[in-house]
Design brief:
The protein folds into two domains: 191 residues, Rossmann fold (3-Layer(aba) Sandwich); 202 residues, Dehydroquinate synthase-like - alpha domain (Dehydroquinate synthase-like, alpha domain). It is 51% helix and 10% strand. It binds fe (ii) ion.
Length: 399
């Protein structure tokens, strides 16, 4: 296959809206990025991270050194948790404003990057709060420059205009999408991902699969999203088993990371629908639930639901994991079974009831899917009509 002909140590520049430095060793491009920030007059930045991965991966060492060398001042906010909250964003934004930072550097997976995007908005709107953003009290059209140093291969947030932050007291986990939060530069370095634990490796890869299954089948999908979708499935199906077996395999990490990047671009173009709209209530209610695990428990039932209308696209896109589908409506159950068994082979055996959800939760989850700001928009993009009945059925079929 041609994949082996690519020099994975060559740092390539992938230009979508964000310019991403992509390849083994790309972290060193932080020096080039620091120069670009200086060129924009940035003298101080806030660095937004989780508790430890920025240190464990070695990314912070390189970034700190570059900032010191270039004379860029920084303040570190390292309190971002999985399923980050509006309070964390407010706290970081206050720190940034008090310090006089004019740009944001995120180091981490989706949670730190999405939080940093939100902080960047508040730096441009100092009189607003994160609740104002996530309750859609205003629509920002400016933000401080965002640099995303990505440490997981799943969310795709380093290349798109989405961010997700939770409002805990309402159990809401809304998503925003604004042009002003495309990162200016991103770094995707597979060498920073070899320590990702097995479970996380799996969940983030399944997140990418969900992005494309949805992006390729919304009411507004396009051929570009479908092209990226098919390649994402091919690469994840091929390289996820290798990364699970041999976590330090750089070629596997490179292609899983590339798959998540193109999946992030796919849903920037094709948007999302059921799986994400129904997962956000799950991790809104149980913040300890990994996003990718929540998605994977819903995916088979979503495929079953949409297959009768999106069968032709799904048959093509899913062919690397389910060969031989024709796309006819009668294959919906087969697609459901086969996706479920593929997830099982990869190591995901949980159903909703194994993660503490019960039949009695379905009503509340369904209500949250319709009430949480922004999720109703995703539901409206589903290829089959998203009635309460349909949503209930997907949750029930995932128990
Ligand atoms: Fe996602």
């Amino acid at each position: 296959m041609w994949e082996n002909k690519i020099d994975i140590h060559q740092i390539t520049e992938i230009r979508a809206k964000t310019t991403t430095y992509f390849g083994v060793g790309a972290i060193n491009k932080i020096h080039t990025i620091a120069d670009a920030l200086l060129g924009k007059g940035v003298k101080k930045v806030i660095v937004v991270t989780g508790k430890g991965s920025h240190i464990k991966t070695g990314a912070w060492d390189v970034v700190k050194k570059a900032l010191d060398e270039k004379g860029i001042g920084y303040i570190l906010y390292s309190e971002i948790t999985p399923n980050p909250t509006v309070d964390q964003v407010d706290e970081a934004a206050k720190l940034a404003l008090d310090f006089g930072a004019t740009a944001v550097i995120a180091i981490g997976g989706g949670s730190p990057i999405d939080s940093a995007k939100s902080v960047a908005i508040l730096m441009a709107y100092p009189d607003k709060t994160a609740r104002d953003i996530y309750e859609f009290k205003f629509a920002p059209d400016k933000a401080a420059p965002i640099i995303a140093i990505n440490l997981t291969h799943g969310t795709g947030t380093e290349v798109n205009r989405f961010a997700v932050v939770s409002i805990p007291e309402k159990e809401y986990k809304p998503a925003i999408a604004y042009d002003c939060i495309y990162p200016l530069f991103s770094i995707d370095d597979p060498a920073l991902m070899t320590q990702l634990p097995a479970e996380q490796t799996l969940y983030v890869s399944v997140d990418a699969i969900n992005h494309i299954v949805e992006a390729a089948t919304t009411k507004v999908t396009n051929p570009f999203a479908i092209l990226l979708a098919k390649e994402t499935v091919r690469l994840v199906a091929k390289y996820l088993p290798i990364a699970k077996e041999d976590p330090k395999n750089l070629t596997a990490r490179y292609y899983l990371l590339y798959a998540s990047l193109i999946a992030g671009t796919a849903f920037d173009n094709g948007l999302l629908h059921f799986t994400h709209a129904l997962e956000h209530p799950l991790s809104g209610v149980k913040p300890e639930l990994a996003h990718g695990l929540g998605l994977s428990m819903l995916l088979p039932a979503v495929i079953k639901q949409i297959y009768p209308v999106s069968g032709e696209i799904l048959a093509d896109v899913l062919s690397p994991i389910i060969p031989g589908l024709k796309g006819t409506p009668d294959e919906a159950l087969k697609a459901f079974d086969e996706v479920k068994s593929w997830l099982k082979t990869m190591g995901i055996k949980s159903q909703l009831k194994d993660e503490g959800f019960a039949e009695s939760d379905v009503e509340k989850l369904t209500a949250l899917a319709f009430e949480t700001p922004s999720l109703d928009l995703l539901l409206s993009l589903a290829p089959v009509e998203a009635t309460k009945e349909t949503v209930r059925e997907i949750y029930t079929n995932s128990l």
